[in-house]
Fold this protein.
Amino acid sequence: MQIKQVSVNGLFGIFDHVIPLNMDERITIIHGPNGFGKTAILRMLNGLFNSRSSVFSSIPFNNFRVEFDDDSRVEVIKTSDKSGKKNPGECINLEFHKPDSESKTFPLEEMKVSPDKDFPLSILDDIIPGLERVAGKTWVYLPTGETLSFNEVIDRFEDILPFKKKLQNEPEWLEKLKNDIHVRLIESQRLLNFEPIRSSRRNSGSSSMVPTVSSYSNELAKRIESKLAEYGTTSQSLDSTFPVRVVRQQSPHLTDEKLRKQLEKIEETRSRLIEIGLLDNNKNSDDQILPEFIDENTRNILSVYVEDVENKLMVFDEIANKIELFRRIINNKFAYSYKEMNFSKEKGFVFKTNYPSSSNIDTLSPTDLSSGEQHELVLLYELLFKVKPNSLVLIDEPELSLHVGWQVQFLKDLQEITKLANLDILMATHSPDIIQDRWDLTVELKGERK
């Protein structure tokens, strides 16, 4: 099931917007002046599918609707509460409509967030830098001056909390909807990331703000190490049964020429994996076999060998494709500043300078990159490595800190990424340089309702 249209009525008490998603090319761009609600729409869409319901209390609107390709729809409806029990006098209901079925309604306020029983609320301000508790379930976030309720704190900082957010009384239809539809928001502020600090306190800990590029570099190193461990396990399993399978192998229907081509292809794959940092360059590797003469016995052995090596190297297929595209896009952009990115299992990202007037090559830390370079690196990494296939990715202001040349190329790069990672994109931008000549992908947010 896919989202085909998003609409909102009475946004900020002023605007009505309808946004049909481009189902064919999988990229939809919304544009319009500041204050028309681009970011608010992305936040509400993210809030609905990622259990961040506090966003619907903080943004003024009347009706927020999401329609799906099976003609079902879900609506968030905000109305005045005339009972006098609520303050500031609003009720927010969820409604689910499906063709030929009875509509289902659920009050949003009945979905409560509950932490684990052993988690004391008083340590939230210890875990989250800049958060100060001012009342029983009220905090002030000092960096922005915002006053936040418990639900708002959990929504905002759930990624770094030592417990998994649990929703009480969540209707079954909403839970199923969230399992079917995956949405990820990439916000405009993406250069800093929370990272937990280990603590001896039971069920607690603290966190610090770290540069996102450093966090993602370490994460990629762990991803590579994980794939190498999987490669090792696969190799060990195949190697332990290799003699038995050779003995049992019937005469393969492979010509000498086909075997040589398969062996050459294996060598090309190994060279590719070495180049992008996934395998070490071992000159004495047994994988480098290109015999000039192949007799019947050799053909038997090599046919099993070829199949084994292909299965071993197949472990790297997905991560190798993503790393290759990642490196190509980044190096095309960083070439103007004479920087080059590679990868290693120890460090993740590896940056070096290649100034034409100097013979010295300096190694750079990810944090030595400019803010624009870091923004681009973080955005591309999120799209390629942190989003599930078939997700709808929401991108707010991709042009942030990017010079015009990068903005011009951005949409073409994004199209390659959506094909490889199998994603749909809903993007909000002010930049005509991002759009280029693809106005057919855009939806303009216009002025006040008539």
